[in-house]
């Protein structure tokens, strides 16, 4: 039976730190959702302030980096002597578990109720399906997996205009799950709101998996490669975005002042993630991984705690922020939604609250070996 041969001796700190950073930033976006619900898209430059836009934009980095690093983490985890059949089995079972969590615990965390008539599928669903697909892909050579991921990322915007003349047909329903966000009607009593269509998220995880090879190299060697890849991705973003021909369904345009024009330029589509969106976010991710290689600061040690228990953090942060928003509403009874400063304050308090249970659980995982720990 074929097995992985590379055996890293310990976790790669830069991956855990970067994952911790994006988990903290993700909480900012969800704090905004809970504390200052908007009646409009915060990236709509005709309505959003610069501060609100940037608050939303910075959180764009979370989902693609999280999915990408999930693939990288899978490669490193499975390179410690497991056979590919063992690795594939784990990917399938963990993927199914993430889908179950999305439809139950995560859904309740958002709304404190389950609505069996309207089901939302978001990032956990995309992660779960991507892991199941990756379970099949790992039998291919790493270069073939990388080519698959790149092809999906680079080419999927060519299909943006694909539509089916008859809705709710099998082809139309499948295409909506794959590439078109929105509500899918399944029967008379079930509607599924697909916020995270699967393409190109599957490709992002596949590419992240192939990048795991870099983290079996010496730190200095991988730093140079990561800098080159990150720099090239950002350069491609600037070139492709400048042309306004391909890479994002929404072209940028000149605004009333120069800095709003910059905002228009970086205002790229997340649902589904466009090529431009992935170039800028994953480009920055590669540069960050290179820059965090030797980080040993106190802040880095705190971020590692979050980065080593991402699923535990994700589930817990929804309930903590939801509870905080309910308490704040009961105490202050605001006549209108709080502004950004209050949202940032609530976010900071939430991160402090989350740190202690996350540290406890991280320490528990390090000192215990129960099988279920690999699923949470």
UniProtKB/TrEMBL annotation:
Protein's UniProt keywords contain Membrane: yes
InterPro entries from the UniProt entry: HGSNAT_cat
Record has Transmembrane helix as a keyword: yes
Keywords noted in UniProt: Membrane, Transmembrane, Transmembrane helix
Residue ranges occupied by any Heparan-alpha-glucosaminide N-acetyltransferase catalytic domain in the UniProt entry: 11-223
Annotated signal peptide: none
Organism domain of life: Bacteria
Cross-referenced Pfam families: HGSNAT_cat
PANTHER family: HEPARAN-ALPHA-GLUCOSAMINIDE N-ACETYLTRANSFERASE CATALYTIC DOMAIN-CONTAINING PROTEIN (PTHR40407:SF1), MEMBRANE PROTEIN-LIKE PROTEIN (PTHR40407)
Protein's name according to its UniProt entry: Heparan-alpha-glucosaminide N-acetyltransferase catalytic domain-containing protein
Organism expressing this protein natively: Mucilaginibacter hurinus
